[in-house]
Amino acid sequence: MDRYDLCRALARDAGKLAHRAFGTSVVSMKGRHDVVTEMDREVERFIRSAIAARFPGDAIIGEEDGGSNGERLWLIDPIDGTANYARGLPRYCVSIGFVERGVPTLGAIYDPSNDWLYSAAKGQGAWLDGQRMAVSPIADIGAATVECGWSMRRPSQAYVDLLARCMNAGAAIRRSGSGALGLADVAAGRAEAYAELHINAWDCAAGLVLVTEAGGFVNDFFAGEGVRDGNPLIATNAVLAGKLAEIVGIPTIS
What we know:
With 254 residues, this protein is an alpha+beta fold.
């Protein structure tokens, strides 16, 4: 089993494990509006153990237990959308990304509520359960849907301003509580863009590969200390990239 096969298998198996406690898992608070369940920890331990057994030299960073960077790095969000998960809202996923020498290379996102497995490998396209995905071709910002992620790590007014800029440009706005699934929606052509003023690496590592392999564009998220500290993020299609970068205020599009 190579890393891509492992990534996909682990995302699905971990998602099925998580779904056993969907809507019932014990909740604690990491911060305001930032919840963690016992299943977050159990799922992350499950993924870590499997990676360590198969590729013991690889580095791992997870949302719950941290870790350290390395040339071959796995980035794990055991349950992205934990607030939804804990409340019984079917909008959450397991996200596993792999970065090699700073380049996002592999990604898998499993949505247990729909039994959907999204996966991508650099140079091999992006897939949803065997069907190739492509980003939306919409070129008119007035016809676009932009998901705007929210984070307590930035001032609330900055988020309000982001919403206002996108709405004033004519875009429809949504927020669903899972950055990873927001990026999967861009890759699948269900939304034209995802933007967030700050997102952590484990939330988006897999989604970055999905979007780029589906023909989309993302900013250089791993610039600077992106792995350790997170960064702003915009993901969209080629024709909207420049306009949205200007609106959102994230100018570097790769």
